[in-house]
Predict the structure.
Amino acid sequence: MGYRVVVVGATGNVGREMLNILAEREFPCDEIAAVASPRSTGTEIEFGETGKMLKVKNIEHFDFTGWDIALFAAGSGPTKEYAPKAASQGCVVIDNSSLYRMDPDVPLVVPEVNPDAIDGYKAKNIIANPNCSTAQMVVALKPLHDAAKIKRVVVSTYQSVSGAGKAGMDELFEQSRAIFVGDPVEAKKFTKQIAFNVIPHIDVFLEDGSTKEEWKMVVETKKILDPKVKVQATCVRVPVFVGHAEAISLEFEDELSAEKAQDILREAPGCMLVDKHEDGGYVTPVECVGDSATYISRVRDDVTVDNGIALWCVSDNLRKGAALNAVQIAELLGRRHLKKG
């Protein structure tokens, strides 16, 4: 006996990936519904590679009563309107937007890192999925934190345009084409040209000069991993279609050598260590696309601090950073709370 599952925002990048991963991991669905905005109503979308086509239903008229789990990939606006409705009708919401992440009554979960936090979901019947950059980073940090207790994290991100949705991907493609054929380059989705460029600005600026994306990495890491950890983030958009990369420097309370860190990461859940000190002995965003792992490379001692380690972290942001983590939360929820059969 399986679950009745709803994917809200099913026609977007993350929603489609959720459907793919549900099918790929053979999540026990007795019934699956694809739900989106009125403009997508009636269109058909494939349920992974099963060959099954789903007719998209209108979110404005959808009744969540009797459905077990709703995976939301619709953005904060629709989530604010429809997630409480779904939750009140007895459907557990797993939300990919930023809306509920810092709500003290909503668990923020990465299953490899803080699975016990999911037990608090009953307060609002909602579970939050973290920011894509945070998700992959804490998967890499958790086993190292357990071994030597992280004091401070300094991270610079190299985030792909898919993190800004289809519009971001379209803009990179259109600008690249325009440059090659000599047409004018126009910036619409991003604040500056993204093709053959990098932009040190993701989301809105805050009063202290940081951006909201950087703030998310700070507060979400504290909520998921440890409130005592200090985090400094610089988030940068780069001309890559899919896959986020991060250069991370860590300072620990206890001694931890690079060699020991490699041994720990090699065995850590969700991590894949690829760290050969030779040409090509590391993973780049292009190579991680379509994979579920958080790849770790370039592990080395940071000699600028006592007990310091530096590393390179890469992951498919549409998967572990969003859709895969949401499905893993659903699997964890099923094992611990919604057992069927």
About this structure: The two ends are 5 Å apart (CA to CA). The chain is about 30% helix and 25% strand. The longest strand covers residues 150-159.
